[in-house]
Amino acid sequence: MSDRDGIREHLKYYRDLGVLGVTTDPKWREREAAVAKPAAEPAMEAEASVDAAGALAELRAHIGDCTRCKLHTLGRTQVVFGSGNPSADLMFVGEAPGADEDEQGVPFIGRAGQLLTKIIESIDLRREDVYIANVIKCRPPENRNPEPDEVATCEPFLSQQIAIVRPRVIVALGTFAAHLLLHTDVPISRIRGVVHEYQGASLIPTFHPAYLLRSPDRKRDVWDDMKKVRALLNDRP
User: Fold this and answer.
1) Cα–Cα distances in angstroms (integers) from residue 212 to residues 5, 54, 71, 150, 217, in the given order
2) How far is CA 207 from CA 94, 198, 230, in A?
3) Given CA atoms 176, 179, 182, 183 in this order, what sign does their dihedral have?
4) pLDDT for 98-148, tens place per residue?
5) C-alpha distances out from residue 87 to 22, 40, 91, 164, Å
6) CA atoms of 206 and 105, how far apart (whole Å)
7) Domains in the chain and their CATH numbers?
8) Is the pTM of this model over 0.85?
9) For 190-222, how does the pLDDT look when each residue is reduced to its tens digit (9 = 90+)?
10) Which of 37, 78, 198, 231 has a CA 20 to 30 Å removed from the CA of 31?
């Protein structure tokens, strides 16, 4: 592939995310180049990562082949716990696994997950740099909305995941995750892109990737929200 073809493909990638222009502002380039995680001794970072990974493994073992709510009797294949960097600065929280996730045991790997990967890469990160989890750990039948007893069962596990990972920024993907974490029923269209606080982290709600597949005209809104996420990550404490 020639350099020109490579540039064309790169621009198409951002256009698919709803980005209509590319800034040449040098200040923005400086912010993009900033390292998200504060400088720390490598040994300390490695130790923290090992501790978090161990704590997540213990939590996963505690959940086991969960039978705490009725979802285990309604056709789910397995628990979909979470994946990614156990000490990530950025964490994404979705609603519940779909068919692909239920089959493979990994969150966000279907069409919506592929779009989420592009969204992550649009702010110069990789999937392995972030942590991804859902509120509900088992697939509801026919992808229906989770019911109150299912939420009551799974919410403590999500809260523990967040406490272990200790992200600096959380992105709530979609109405369900945003309403649960923020304890609100305000429409997602009104709270998306607004910075909130959750367990000491900055929390930004945005549209769910599955919604973007149905309404691609809202990709620009998510791009605007992700620029805020990038700015928060670049703002070292």
Assistant:
1) 27, 35, 27, 26, 8
2) 10, 18, 17
3) negative
4) 999 999 999 999 999 999 999 999 999 999 999 999 999 999 999 999 999
5) 31, 13, 10, 8
6) 24
7) 51-234 (3.40.470.10)
8) no
9) 999 999 999 999 999 999 999 999 999 999 999
10) 198
